[in-house]
């Protein structure tokens, strides 16, 4: 900072404004004129020498320790101001902090007094009298209501470096006697009041100064295991287990043994992928048979991690900070090896495990290219609902949803049943307008949405605001309750699930999953992978899948509704030309969604009416139109049972 002329006092104030206006400068000048100590409660300690000088204070000194890069705990300043005003004990109560409001005195031949800090705005206020400068300095130094101790520059506090959590030390007559971590205002207030009362009693001869335990100024290390770099395994639940519907049972056993399924992908392996993953057995005589087995059915590929043990923390400061309970014996994981566990459970023949770090990385990149990004984001789903009165403004609400970076996965208008309405309006059941609300919800449509984003459940609830319009004043005016208050009932016109568990329950209730049978015909075998990619992008789950050379009997079960038609024999002939990929697809409204994705039966018509559909892109003619799907729930159930029940029944 440039040197100041004789008789000037520079006052620099931290601000969020990068270009302060003239009015701001006038305001800061007025702050100075009204008295510096009325506004700045804190004496700054930003060097070891000032720290040692501070320890000479008599009485209680409260020290806010923080890093220059993150600033002091401004949330605590109202408490310190309150304590200063209410106790009125300037002789025995002092406060200290660090760099953001940084007063210090530079003595040179000009007897210059300066205030400096890291802020971006400053002004110079002339003070001609050297006595006045000394008076200001003395006033600042003696008031000393609070000082800040900068951990970055003070050797004594080096162990607190790079810790963004605020720490408050309590010094009595130069001895540190207590420490509180975190901005716990009630605890700090209680500690200050207790120690001030003790000082008063000691001064009055009513008590002897207690012997305080030594508080080390080095960071107390928690006795916790050092976090190890997370290691993953790849597990493959093979096609026979999927067909026999053992996959869910296997996954449940894996999680019960203390492992975490971080990601899952259902896929049918390519020949190359099988050769890569199982290269260690490629020289065995039956490998080609195994290769055919792995490439003709659906497998589940899992990323598995060892569940992290609960941190065990031993705190020496039990009065000042809560500690977490150590894990009980039952919580200690008994299985370090997934492979050994699967063998012990007699299910290793259904599930192969890869632990080699290089191979795990390679296969993660193949099957889960976005795994690291997705793991960091922790995406969640929640149910959102716009009540009937709000539908006229649904475009405005949808814009807010988009602006807040939510993705809408599913949506539907629905007239709620009485049971559904009471479930969603349970929080109003004690209100005198509850019956009127249920009547409205069951007579007019609501808009239900499934939203996706990071921290989705909590963020949506925060946007909603209070449950009733009367409580809007307690929230920001930007809450959705405030923005969309309408109708003759004093309720929030939007709903959101209360927790992740409630969200999944709500979603399954309003968007129940449905199965449909899907078939990729033989003439598009080479395009199977591309079609499967389209299926996944549309949000379908591959519940079952296998390659089949369909027999006339099986074709008859799939096309049972048209077996009397003249062209039926042509369908049988087309499907007998090679293997078809038969699938059970699952999602809400799956039958309609799959038929929409397929497009019209005639590929030429599909190119005109639905050019992005599968039949428009891959169909040749009405018979060789690439794909087939069930027409209704009954045919979906019959077809699926006919083709997959036999496999599921084999034990």
From TrEMBL:
Family classification: Belongs to the NDK family.
Compositionally biased region (Basic and acidic residues): 318-334
> What sequence ranges are listed for the domain Nucleoside diphosphate kinase-like?
379-515, 516-651
Which region ranges are annotated with the description Disordered? 310-334
Q: Write down what this protein is called.
A: Thioredoxin domain-containing protein 3 isoform X2
């Amino acid at each position: 900072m440039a040197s100041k002329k004789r008789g000037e006092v520079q006052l620099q104030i931290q601000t969020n404004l990068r270009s302060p206006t003239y009015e701001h400068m006038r305001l800061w000048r007025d702050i100075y004129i009204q008295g510096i100590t009325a506004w700045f409660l804190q004496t700054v300690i930003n060097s070891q020498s000032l720290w040692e000088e501070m320890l000479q204070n008599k009485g209680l000194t409260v020290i806010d320790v923080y890093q220059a890069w993150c600033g002091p705990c401004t949330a605590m300043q109202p408490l310190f101001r309150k304590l200063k005003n209410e106790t009125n004990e300037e002789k025995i109560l002092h406060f200290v902090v660090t760099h953001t409001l940084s007063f210090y005195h530079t003595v040179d031949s000009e007897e210059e007094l300066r205030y400096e800090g890291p802020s971006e705005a400053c002004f110079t206020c002339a003070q001609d009298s050297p006595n006045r400068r000394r008076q200001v300095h003395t006033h600042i130094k003696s008031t000393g209501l609070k000082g800040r101790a900068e951990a970055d520059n003070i050797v004594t506090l080096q162990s607190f470096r790079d810790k963004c959590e605020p720490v408050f030390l309590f010094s009595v007559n130069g001895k540190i006697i207590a420490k509180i971590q975190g901005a716990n205002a009630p605890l700090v207030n209680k500690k200050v009041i207790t120690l001030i009362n003790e000082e008063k009693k000691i001064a009055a001869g009513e008590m002897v100064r207690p012997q305080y335990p030594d508080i080390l100024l080095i960071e107390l290390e928690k006795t916790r295991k050092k976090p190890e770099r997370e290691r993953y395994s790849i597990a493959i639940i093979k096609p026979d287990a999927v067909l026999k519907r053992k996959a869910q049972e296997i996954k449940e056993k894996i999680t019960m043994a203390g492992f975490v399924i971080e990601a899952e992908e259902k896929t049918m392996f390519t020949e190359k992928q099988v050769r890569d993953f199982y290269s260690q057995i490629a020289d065995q005589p039956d490998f080609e048979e195994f290769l055919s087995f792995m490439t003709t059915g659906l497998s589940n590929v899992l990323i598995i991690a060892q569940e992290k043990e609960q941190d065990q923390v031993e705190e020496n400061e039990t009065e000042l900070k809560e500690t977490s309970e150590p894990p009980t014996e039952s919580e200690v994981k008994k299985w370090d090896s997934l492979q050994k566990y699967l063998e012990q459970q007699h299910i290793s023949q259904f599930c192969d495990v890869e632990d080699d770090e290089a191979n795990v990385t390679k296969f993660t990149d193949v099957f889960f290219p976005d795994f690291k990004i997705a793991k960091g984001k922790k995406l969640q789903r929640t149910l959102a609902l716009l009540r009937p009165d709000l539908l006229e403004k649904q475009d405005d609400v949808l814009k807010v949803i988009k602006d807040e970076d939510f993705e809408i996965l599913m949506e539907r208008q629905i007239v709620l049943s009485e049971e559904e309405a009471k479930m969603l309006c349970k929080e109003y059941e004690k209100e005198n307008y509850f019956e009127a609300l249920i009547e409205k919800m069951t007579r007019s449509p609501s808009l239900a949405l499934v939203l996706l984003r990071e921290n989705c459940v909590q963020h949506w609830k925060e946007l909603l605001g209070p449950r009733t319009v009367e409580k809007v004043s307690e929230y920001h005016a930007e809450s959705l309750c405030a923005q969309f208050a309408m109708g003759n009932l004093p309720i929030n016109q939007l709903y959101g699930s209360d927790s992740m568990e409630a969200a999944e329950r709500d979603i399954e209730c309003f968007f129940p999953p449905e199965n449909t049978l899907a078939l990729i015909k033989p003439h598009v075998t080479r395009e199977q992978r591309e079609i499967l990619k389209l299926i996944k992008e549309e949000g379908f789950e591959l519940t079952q899948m296998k390659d089949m050379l369909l027999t006339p009997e099986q074709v008859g079960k799939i096309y049972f509704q048209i077996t009397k038609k003249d062209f039926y024999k042509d369908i049988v002939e087309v499907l007998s030309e090679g293997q078809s990929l038969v699938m059970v697809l699952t999602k809400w409204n799956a039958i309609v969604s799959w038929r929409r994705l397929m497009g019209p039966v005639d590929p030429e018509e599909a190119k005109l009416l639905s050019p992005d559909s599968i039949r428009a892109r891959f169909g040749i003619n009405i018979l060789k139109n690439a794909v087939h799907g069930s027409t209704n729930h009954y045919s979906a159930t019959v077809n699926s049972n006919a083709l997959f029940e036999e496999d599921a029944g084999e034990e």
